[in-house]
Automatic annotation (TrEMBL):
The gene is fdm. It comes from Klebsiella pneumoniae. This is Zinc-type alcohol dehydrogenase-like protein ybdR. It is an enzyme of class 1 (oxidoreductase). Residues 25-64 form the Alcohol dehydrogenase-like N-terminal domain. Its EC number is 1.2.99.4. Its cofactor is Zn(2+). It comes from the Bacteria. One of its GO terms (molecular function) is metal ion binding. It holds the Pfam family ADH_N.
Amino acid sequence: MKALTYHGPHHVSVDTMPDPALEAADDIILRVTATAICGSDLHLYRGKIPGTHHGDIFGHEFMGGSGGSRFRGHRGPQRRSGGYPVCHRLRETASFVACSSMPPAKAPIAARERRSNRKGISPPAALFGYSDLYGGIPGGQAEYVRVPKANTGPFKVPDTLPDEKVLFLSDILPTAWQAVKNAEVKPGSSVAIFGAGPVGLLCASCARLNGAEQIFIIDHNDYRLDFAQQRYGAIPINFDHP
């Protein structure tokens, strides 16, 4: 398969890599149909994250399907809560959004990291494509990706929704929504958002959905501030031009 791989600070390339393989009963192999670059991926790209090695595959924001006839995910048991399935079993035509964080307690970790864990404590979580420090799981900036704990992590999305309307659910939209909820934004609130990047713009959207009356957004990129003003009715503040 083709995948974006790391070869040292400021050096990545699209290389031919081995296809992923099923390793556990609740794994699936996902055929990636859409993926995104997170701002945090730049820390990896710049060589700032320990445990990042040559050949590592980045990417923790992705979605896709089961891969058709080439790969068939193992049908692990469904987990149920209150009689309702938490995650659908894999079907050949199903589409999923892959969660950026693995479920707690049993997330896999690279062998060398496990050896250094002398007390044998299970890692609390793992992150796709984000170094051995965060579990050593290959990421989704590739044609295919192995998704561990697939009977609890990914969830099925309707076939009627296009990828570009769903991909943000893998990371960036929940980040913005959680920020707005943590700030207890409610009808009539006045909100200040520092940074009009993708997360900041989605914070403006979520704040408006939660009833914010005034939204101030602070940045120094006029095109982003203009977008926030036009799309969300935000009040732009350019700190380079007070």
